[in-house]
Amino acid sequence: MSDSAPTIMWFRDDLRLADNPALYDAASRGPVVCLYVHDPAFPLGGAEKWWLHGALSVLDHDLRAQGGQLCIMAGDTHESISWLAGQVGAVSVVWNRRYGPHARQVDAQVKAALKARGIDAHSHPGNMLHEPWQVRTRQGTPFRVFTPWWRAVQAKGAPLPPLPAPDRPVFAVVPSVAGGRLVTPAALGLLPEHPDWAQGLRAQWQPGEGAAHARLDAFIAEQVHGYATQRELPARPATSGLSPYLRFGHVSPRQVWHAVDAAGKGDRDTACFLSEVGWRDFAHATLFDFPDMGTRNLRPEYDHMPWRHDPAALRAWQMGKTGYPIIDAGMRELWRTGWMHNRVRMVVASFLTKHLLLDWRVGAAWFADTLVDADAASNPFNWQWVAGCGLDAAPYFRIFNPVSQGEKFDPAGDYVRKWVPEIAHLPDKYIHAPWKAGPDAPRGYPAPIVDLAGGRARALAAWKTL
Ligand code: FAD
């Protein structure tokens, strides 16, 4: 501990000690105060809240192991930072950048207000492989298509190597008057209580930097080999499961990139995985350049799409009771664990926006509330991609058939049997179309809520009106 003028390290979506450029900078300037502000102006989904509780607890624990602590404040970001800066006599405040419109606006306000008081404020690149403005077309404009963007990224060479955690950082003494406004993670009320629906999340996930690296190491040891082919099969544990760790910044994309690249030495599986990590950057770069991506169609002609209003169909989709096993398995996996396999995310999103003709924003809102990796960039970006209204989107007329998608990517029905146990007894030939089983058709499992051919024809007719 030290009582000379400190720097405030303002943690946000970067809840880690290693490869944290802002923290590294703060520690090199002198004593550090570590701060997290829980601001209601940045609403979180239920699953994200559950994760954040664990994430803050682990970060506080990790800091205390080094003689520091995480100061947690609840309330308006600007007011909280200003107040704490005054209380501790901070000379500077540092953070890693965010790319959403509201976040950028708040960060700019905070920076201006601090500078006006003579307090240095500095932002760092800590959450992307490259900053959005570093990858541009020859004309200096944003890329609208992933493949040329990814080629441009690769032409830049490897992203910056990750930084170590600060070596024996010095932590500032936080005066007791400031302590009165600090809260514990429990006091933020992030955990569900009545009812406690988080049992499945607890069974599957452990937030924190240590758990992120354990998962990354296991992925490199066991799964990266074969990733390019196995990643499409939801019954296999073939993907990394790193998405919530990247979402909350327990691990940085640069750490992931360098660790996997070093292990894979450029083979096909490694290249495929790194390009997926690239999609994350591309989604954030798109949000940076098109700030209303979360609410507005990137292709304005879709503003005229005649979306339906059908609360019963939406509820059936949310609850995994559509009568289509691959859809229901995915939605139940999401509800139970806060995560869903990427292939199944695409199929359930296509079903909602095409067979049910419901607005992608309704689906994105449900994902935002239920995903532990819910992300202001990746979530709407991918919804717009599937719905056809994204920049580099799958065409609207590409409509996934949930039966053939199930047969192709879950051929033995293992994934469906795990999440839809009431049809587990069916033979493989009916597992993706249980209504065809005749007298063996399971009771208690719903009949299909929409006819596939009819829903497809309705979707195409709607699209042709644009
Ligand atoms: P891996 O296959 O191991 O990939 C490694 C990492 O690459 C992921 O952790 C993720 O950070 C990134 N990545 C992979 N695919 C994508 C992609 N298509 N777009 C952006 N990043 C990607 N991902 C989120 O992180 N948050 C979301 O809110 C989100 N919403 C989605 C909504 C829809 C409708 C769809 C189709 C996809 C969405 N994705 C989202 C992308 C993808 O489904 C998840 O990133 C992936 O399933 C996470 O599992 P993993 O970590 O095992 O992935």
TrEMBL record:
Its EC number is 4.1.99.3. The keyword tRNA processing does not apply. GO terms for biological process: photoreactive repair; response to light stimulus. Gene3D superfamilies: 1.25.40.80, DNA Cyclobutane Dipyrimidine Photolyase, subunit A, domain 3, HUPs. FAD binds at residues 227, 239-243, 273, 373-375. It comes from the Bacteria. The record marks 307, 360, 383 as: Electron transfer via tryptophanyl radical. Its cofactor is (6R)-5,10-methylene-5,6,7,8-tetrahydrofolate; FAD. Residues 5-129 form the Photolyase/cryptochrome alpha/beta domain. Binds 1 FAD per subunit. Keywords: Chromophore, FAD, Flavoprotein, Lyase. It is an enzyme of class 4 (lyase). GO terms for molecular function: deoxyribodipyrimidine photo-lyase activity; DNA binding; FAD binding. It catalyses: cyclobutadipyrimidine (in DNA) = 2 pyrimidine residues (in DNA). InterPro entries: Crypto/Photolyase_FAD-like_sf, Crypto/Photolyase_N_sf, Cryptochr/Photolyase_FAD-bd, Cryptochrome/DNA_photolyase_1, DNA_photolyase_1_CS_C, DNA_photolyase_N, Rossmann-like_a/b/a_fold. PANTHER family: CRYPTOCHROME (PTHR11455), CRYPTOCHROME CIRCADIAN CLOCK 5 ISOFORM X1 (PTHR11455:SF9). Belongs to the DNA photolyase family. This is Deoxyribodipyrimidine photo-lyase.
